[in-house]
Amino acid sequence: MTGQLALFAEEQSSPAGLQYITDFIAPELERELIGRVSALPLQPFQFGAFEGKRRVASFGFRYDYALQRLQPAEPIPGWLTPLVEKVETHGGRSTRIGQVLCTEYDVGVGIGWHRDKPHFDRIFGLSLGASCKFRFRRPAGEKWQRYTLEAAPRSLYMMAGESRRVWEHSIPAVEAKRYSITFRTMADRKT
Ligand SMILES: O=C(O)CCC(=O)C(=O)O
Ligand SMILES: [Fe+2]
């Protein structure tokens, strides 16, 4: 009995290294960013047969699944600079964003279970337009330990430590159109 209660309590605890703040930006900026992102030449995410129908634009770098390595992408556009700086300030000393990914999820679109590529270090995600269930899982014996973060519009999550390297994350089909801007620091920086 005690064991079950303990397990239940453990299942609810959030992944170590996951941070979440609401209202990272104001509603006016959210509207502006949705306009900017939806005006980008978004392309269906190129991966495998089971990939969702989300549409993306990468800046700084993009991960090429065929070549299995990072490729240079368009530089981060000027309209994103104040936001990148705000995320870097939020991330604390020596936070340097190297890649930005803008994503559009139409109603019914999500993203399957994955961990982000090891070429990146910390991951920051700004939600726009609608909330989503940001789900986490990691193996616990024969089962999965799970945690769900309800990511509200205008909120920012940060994945570092175990939440980044051990846990997988996914987003089930969204019920309203959602955009996200993901900011990633690079692993193995020389400076
Ligand atoms: O849309 C998001 O907030 C996260 C998307 C994601 O997990 C990814 O692109 O790796
Ligand atoms: Fe991810």
TrEMBL record:
Single biological process term from Gene Ontology: demethylation
Superkingdom: Bacteria
GO molecular function: demethylase activity; oxidoreductase activity
SUPFAM superfamilies named among the record's database cross-references: Clavaminate synthase-like (SSF51197)
Domain Fe2OG dioxygenase: 96-187
PROSITE patterns documented for this protein: FE2OG_OXY
Any one Pfam family match given in the protein's UniProt record, by short name: 2OG-FeII_Oxy_2
Protein name in UniProt: 2OG-Fe(II) oxygenase
Lineage: Bacteria, Pseudomonadati, Pseudomonadota, Alphaproteobacteria, Hyphomicrobiales
